[in-house]
């Protein structure tokens, strides 16, 4: 089965409510074979599960609590333990259907967190979710912003063995510590307009995946991103690594299967 696996997207976002059928159709027409749907808060868990049932074998659910909570930009704040409490019964209920725990992580953007206490709360929420992932034998789908080093160090300290670092904004040297720990890094279409080109140069292809983070991180700023744009990230990686698009497609698919073993029955060789 040839095609791209979008290892991190927000297909449950309200931006897709009106035309989800078309978005999924266009994804399939443009070479996608699986969408890994991540959650940000407990309120969208049921919607993600429903989407995975509506598009069986194509949309795969992850549940987890994002380090940034609050839907509208003006109400955004760091995660607290209360946010996690609402999520735990649902993670337990759907544990057998999950591909990973996510989106989890650390976000130390000053607008989101401006105290050591706030950072500590984020760390504790991440540690708890890492423990749950370990108990369920599931990988973590991880966000880190302005917190590349603390995130990778925390994952290693907690003995996390399977993790995807999505849209990593840290230094390539820090990413390489993650590579040594066996982690994967997913590259979004926004790579063509970001400052992270060095990351693609340094990361071995064997530790790279592809993602879109739709509806965010598209090739054009302020334009809704869709899974079909994954080819933009793939072409970029192919160019930097000096390999064919076909090679990037195949190796990133194999990496995604290693990272998310529950995909294997659906993605035949
Ligand atoms: Zn995301």
Automatic annotation (TrEMBL):
Which of UniProt's keywords are assigned here?
Answer: Hydrolase, Metal-binding
Q: Which InterPro entries does the entry mention?
A: Metal_Hydrolase (IPR032466), TatD-like (IPR001130)
Question: Quick one: which residues bind a divalent metal cation 1?
Answer: 8, 10, 103, 213
Binding of a divalent metal cation 2 occurs at 143, 166
Task: Answer whether the UniProt record assigns the keyword Hydrolase to this protein.
Answer: yes
SUPFAM superfamilies, per database record: Metallo-dependent hydrolases
Q: Does the keyword rRNA processing apply?
A: no
Name one molecular function that GO assigns to this entry.
hydrolase activity, acting on ester bonds
Q: Give the signal sequence positions.
A: none
Q: What does this protein do?
A: Exhibits 3'-exonuclease activities and apurinic/apyrimidinic (AP) endonuclease (in vitro). Show preferential AP endonuclease activity on double-stranded DNA substrates and 3'- exonuclease activity on single-stranded DNA.
Family membership, please give it: Belongs to the metallo-dependent hydrolases superfamily. TatD-type hydrolase family.
PANTHER family in the cross-refs: DEOXYRIBONUCLEASE TATDN3-RELATED, HYDROLASE OF PHP SUPERFAMILY-RELATED PROTEIN
Question: What protein name is recorded for this chain?
Answer: TatD DNase domain containing 3
Question: To which species is this protein native?
Answer: Paramormyrops kingsleyae
